[in-house]
Amino acid sequence: MRCAIFGVVLAAAALVPVSGRAEDGLPRIHAGEGLAGIFSEVRFGGAWHDIGAKERGANVLGEVLFVSPVPARLTTDMPPLYRWMFQPRVHLGFAANTEGYTSYGYAGLTWTTMLARDVFRRGDGIRFDFFFGGSLNNGKHVTNELDRKSLGGNLLFRVGGEIGYQIDPRWSVSLFLDHESNAGSARANEGLNSLGLRIGFGL
């Protein structure tokens, strides 16, 4: 599953050149542009928990993205193809399982760019996000239960990608895939994968 996630990331990144201006159509991402100059976007939705594996149920999701810590003046003159790589946003979120299986909170960085603009109407676009960070879960370290994962610890890495339709600079809808594991730092490392749909609102 990790290979699949990185495959999605690389395939989407390869399409970036079709975007004429990397930031057009996106929520405000620089300091002073979002709500109170701090908050950039909120996202909420649901996900299929531990797809095709042991644990069950759906996850209820919530996430807030803060404006990029990188000042706009440092990236304005960069070519659009590379600019998005230097303006990540900090994210903070949670995934609550509806059937009592593993839930988690997470934090990290999100990189966002437009793959295409004016797709169905002027001002819309196809957005790509890559995110990386860590998570804190309430799951099992090691277990013999047939419907629970042996995660190896409560602190895990979290990585994934997201494809979305940016309706306008405020609203978006997207499909994402994420993976959580300890990257082999513990003997038990079954990991968790989630596939979900969420709505974004730029602040």
From TrEMBL:
Cleaved signal peptide residues: 1-22
Molecular function in Gene Ontology: hydrolase activity
Pfam families membership: PagL (PF09411)
Record has Signal as a keyword: yes
UniProt keyword annotations, A-Z: Hydrolase, Signal
Superkingdom of origin: Bacteria
Name of the featured protein: Acyloxyacyl hydrolase
Organism: Siccirubricoccus soli
